[in-house]
């Protein structure tokens, strides 16, 4: 069997597959790219040809305009596509709408590039599908044992409890516009919250995309343009940057909340002046990461973007052969 | 613990005083007694433990690889928070503790017992609960609640002026049962010297056999048997009758028979027991009466409860707590004799001339009730009644733990540092069926008591002798010809319908590994049944 580095290697542009001649989630413009999902650090504009799920292509078009790449090709989950001698399949990653793992098969070897992923149920996208592989490339955003996320429904219950306790105040929930916002909306609906939810303008295009894909979000209305002391007792969803912003002052004595895996750590919540931290993440937590590695038992594990060090230690303790890949260009996910 | 943890969490993130008031009022209005009282005491600083954080870190590093712990601590920056987050939960291992249980256990535990208690609680709690517990333990709640703010919250709860609360505040003690009763219009406003109020109890240290006997003179101490019931304080003052657990929880409702017997004026300290023709019944009988909202006549007739007294705190209106034990004891004897009740008797003193003589008595208690005692209590003749657990005046000297030889049957993978090892052991003893065939029946589970070296050997034994696997559990070969004998120490044994063997152990742990002992010579179930409490 040929070595893994013949199939996949790290370049300044990002992960590159020499026999297939394409990059995966490149951070700079390249001739041919496979994009795992629509978050901006993975999906950038300006590539030659882009291969992604139809949902991811739609997200890119909505964000960057229809000309985000010279050419785009859609591959549904499970559909086999050939690039030179390499067979490429996109499989659900459970991260956000359209998110995929890139499965590369070449010369009897299977490599899986997870992209971002989680193992929990998410009403807005299909569940992560484990694919047996020789090489697994995993994200490590929450790769520390301090990250063991509670049930998302419990966190949403906290939000609703607070809404009933402070009916004269607006609850302002910071949530990433792609994925987190729609998941929070769906979780609120599942918890029986049927009232109109108010949206910052930055949410509109992604909400529309999710709805077009069949995710029902219930009654939504714009929060912008409201008068002073507006929307007491209501829930407003806004990008994380907006909740402590001047924009937030229009609401009635707002309670700033933030839905993110980072809210697990108090100092992070305090830094952002969050009064109601909600630990809801679209990434795998420590247990999900390590359990995935245990389940897949790859011959080789590559760990990228996040806390590689602790996962390398885990791998050493568990006799898993692992390497950290330093891929430039991915920040702390603003997830 | 959940509601308290949630409250602490919210208070810590809430800057606004008004919002804090709302959160406090909401919690105090919904949490049950005595939980909310203890919570209030913890928030206002009336209840502090101030444990040193060092052992908390040690406990965490025993569960998680120290390098992973260090990386985590680096990232989080706060020790208690790091431990709360990284502690590998062991769901189902233990029931999640309630705040009053935690408070009671911490108030009565010795320094040495605290780490073990802590581990059991951390196993059962979620991350928020673990954080609250560790903050409570280390005295660092710091969630921005002043006593003044707490009183304000109480005032809104009861819709009374805050001055009314302040006037009586100093006479109230955690867990503030009377205060809440008044705020909820269930009783009159307690007066500054509320009759029937709870007096914080005095507790004993565990004796250190190695050093204490050399240090203390036997002549300075009185000895009495340590009864296996529950510690209670019974108050009857100005028509107010109360029965408190040792943490001040009012348990009167479950014991109307005892309440009817409080025909005195004063406050007594003693052991709640089931009496069987004047004799103490085993703890199992008392359990039939505990944790009930009420008691019916049938239950009370079958398990009549009473108090075996050992101290007198108030004789009428006279406070005896500043008197030496010798004097209080004389007053108590006269008090109980005058009362002449068949439900309230006297815990007799056990005369002795030397520590050696007392040791012999402890090993071989005299006929009668001392045979089922948990051990002995030692009280300095000159000790005043001092709340808390002062070192020196009172000691408890428990009987040695029970020991049995059992056979290892199943092993389960551990967590943290032990995650690679089979470190949780289910063990069994022999049982004979109707045909005279002997088979092993599981009687308990132990996951500590062995060294790291022993753990490695145990782990190897499990791997080498696995006969079946079910998920994380391995079934280990154990039959009359082959098996590993574990000497198990435990504190007590009770009947249990939930266990196949019909018995449940208290605090089982591996005392010794008997590599030398043939499995067929391990103990039999009837041996265990004779140890039932
Ligand atoms: Zn992402
Ligand atoms: Zn990412």
Quick structural overview:
The complex is a heterodimer of chains A (335) and B (533). Chain A is an alpha/beta fold and 335 residues long.
What does this structure look like?
The complex is a heterodimer of chains A (335) and B (533). By secondary structure, chain A is an alpha/beta fold. In chain A, 23% of the residues lie in helices and 26% in strands. Chain A has eight helices and 19 strands. Chain A has helices spanning 4-7, 54-64, 152-165, 180-190, 204-212, 266-271, 286-296, 308-317; strands spanning 9-11, 14-17, 22-24, 32-34, 47-52, 69-74, 80-83, 86-92, 100-106, 109-113, 135-140, 171-174, 197-199, 220-222, 235-238, 255-259, 276-278, 300-306, 322-324. In chain A, the strands form three sheets. In chain A, strands 7-8-9-10-11-18-19 form a seven-stranded mixed sheet, covered by helices on one side. Chain A has a six-stranded mixed sheet with strand order 1-2-3-4-5-6. Chain A is globular, with a radius of gyration of 20 Å. Chain A starts with a helix and ends in an 11-residue tail after the last strand. Chain B has 533 residues and is of the alpha+beta class. Chain B has helices at residues 2-13, 17-30, 35-44, 54-63, 66-76, 79-86, 99-108, 114-124, 127-138, 147-158, 162-169, 177-183, 212-215, 256-260, 283-287, 297-302, 325-339, 355-363, 452-464, 525-529, and strands spanning 205-206, 221-226, 230-237, 240-245, 266-276, 279-280, 305-315, 318-319, 344-346, 375-380, 394-398, 402-413, 422-432, 438-446, 466-470, 473-476, 485-490, 492-495, 503-506, 509-514. The two termini of chain B are 30 Å apart. The relative contact order of chain B is 0.09. Chain B has 20 helices and 20 strands. In chain B, helix 2 packs across helix 10 and helix 6 (79-86) runs antiparallel to helix 9. Among the domains of chain B are: 205-398, 2-Layer Sandwich (D-amino Acid Aminotransferase, Chain A, domain 1), CATH 3.30.470; 402-532, Nucleic acid-binding proteins (OB fold (Dihydrolipoamide Acetyltransferase, E2P)), CATH 2.40.50.140. The A-B interface holds A 144-148, 150, 158, 162, 165-166, 255, 264-267, 269-270, 274-277, 307, 309-310, 313-314, 317-318 and B 6, 10, 12-15, 19, 22-23, 26, 64-65, 67-69, 71-72, 75-78, 81-82, 85-86, 89, 126-127, 419-420. The complex binds zinc ion (ZN) (2 copies).
